[in-house]
Amino acid sequence: MAATDAAKTIDPHAWLAARSRWSVFEIAFWLATLLPFFLFPTYLTLASQVAIAALFALSVDLILGYAGIVTLGHAMFFGIGAYTAGILSARFGWNDPVSGLLIAGAFAGAIGFIASYLIVRVQHLALIMVTLGLGFLTYELANAMGWLTGGADGLRGVRTGEIFGFFRFDLWGYVGYSYALTVLFLAFLFSRRLVNSSFGLALRGVRENVRRMPAIGSEYRWHLRVIYTISAAMAGLAGAVLTQTTNTVGLNTLSFERSADVVVMLILGGTGRLYGAIVGAIIFMVARDQLAGINPQYWYFWIGLLLMVVVLFMPNGILGFLTRLAGRRD
User: Fold this and answer.
1) pLDDT of 194-229, one tens digit each?
2) Pseudo-torsion of CA 200, 128, 309, 257, nearest 10°?
3) How many helices (H) and strands (E) does the chain have?
4) pLDDT at 89 exceeding the cut of 60
5) Tens digit of pLDDT for each residue in 270-307?
6) Which of the residue ranges 236-240, 249-253, 293-297 would you say has the lowest mean pLDDT?
7) How far apart are the first and last CA of the chain?
C-alpha cells in the first residue's frame, strides 16, 4: 500500500511541469540584470564580461551538473568559437555579428560532436585527462598556425559590424552588454527547457548511475553525445561574443586557466542548477575585478580562500546554501 501511494505521488510529468513554471524570484533576477544600465553605467564593460562568463559557465553546467561529465578543457570550444568569429572577420571580411555568432556556435558544436565519441568512452580520472589533453592540443595547434590565428601575438584586424544594421558597438558598453545579455538569456531559456524535459531527466539518471540506464532501455551514450555537442556549441557562442564585443582574440581564450576558472565559478554558485552558473560567474568576475584592483599580484589568494570556505561550509555552492536556508525557513 505504501509503495502504491509513493508511485502515485511521484509523477515525472507533474514534476517536470512544476519545475518549468517561472517563479517570482526568477523574474526578479532577470529584471535585476537590467540594473547596470541605470545604476552602474561605468561598469557596463565588466557587466558584459560577466554575461559572457555566465554563458560559458552555463555550458559547462549542462555537462557537469546534469550529465556528470567532468571537464578541465572546455576552453577548447570557447576558443574555437572566439577564433571562428575572429577569423571570419579578419581573414574573410565577414563582420555581421549575428551570422558570425551562429557560424561560430555551429562550428564549435560540430567539433564537440566529433570529440563526444571519445568522451563517452572514458570516465572519472581518465575523462579529466582526456578533456585536459584535448584542451592542450587545441592551444598548441592555434599557437602553431600563426598564419591563420596570429599565434602568440593574437589575431589582428577583427571588426564587428552593426547588429541587424542598426546597433553599433559603442565604447561605453551599452550595446555590448545588451548583446551579451540577450545571448545569455536566450541560451538560458533553451537550457531551462532542455533540463526540464524528459531528456533532462534522462541526463540526471546518467549522472546518478550510468550503469543502470541501459537496463531501462536508455541510450545513455547518445544522450551524452547530444548534451556534449550542445554544451560545446554554447561555449562557442560565449567565445564568439567575447571576440565581437572586444574585437580581439588570443591564445588566452584556449588556456587552461579559463577552463579552471569556469569550474571555480560552478563550485562557487552550485552545479546542476543553471542559476548556480550565473551566480558563480557574477561572484567570481566581480571579486576578481575588485581584488585585482587592490592587489594585482595576489588576488588569486583571496579567490582560493573564498573557494575553500564554500567547499567546506557550502558543499552545494552558494545558491544551494541559500536554497537550503529558504527550505528550512518554509
Assistant:
1) 988 888 788 888 777 666 666 666 677 888 999 999
2) -110
3) 16, 0
4) yes
5) 888 899 999 999 999 998 888 877 777 777 888 888 88
6) 293-297
7) 29
Q: How far apart are CA 56 and CA 75, in angstroms?
A: 9
Residue carrying C-alpha cell 558563480: 280
Grid cell at residue 238: 560565449
Q: Note the pTM of the prediction, 2 decimals.
A: 0.91
**Rounded Cα distance, 219 and 198, in Å:** 13
How far from the centroid of its chain's Cα atoms is residue 108's Cα?
13
Q: Which amino acid type is present at position 277? A: A
Q: Taking a C-beta distance cutoff of 8 angstroms, is the pair 261, 56 a contact?
A: no
Number of C-alpha atoms within 13 angstroms, CB side, residue 267? 17
One-letter amino acid of 123: Q
Q: What letter would DSSP give residue 171? A: T
Give the span between the Cα atoms of 194 and 104, in whole angstroms.
21
Alpha helices in the chain (DSSP H): 2-9, 12-20, 24-32, 36-39, 44-64, 75-90, 97-119, 124-144, 146-149, 174-195, 198-208, 220-246, 256-269, 275-294, 299-313, 317-329
87-126 residues labelled b (16+ CB within 10 A) or e (exposed):
bbbbeeebbbbeebbebbbebbbebbbebbeebbeeeeee
Rounded to 5 degrees, φ, ψ at 165 are 80, 5
Cell of 18: 512544476
Cα separation of 240 and 100, whole Å? 8
The C-alpha atoms of residue 13 and residue 20 are separated, in whole angstroms, by: 11
The answer to whether 279 and 269 have CB atoms below 8 angstroms apart is yes
List the chain domain ranges.
Answer: 42-255
For 136-159, what is each residue's pLDDT tens digit? 999 999 999 988 988 888 888 888
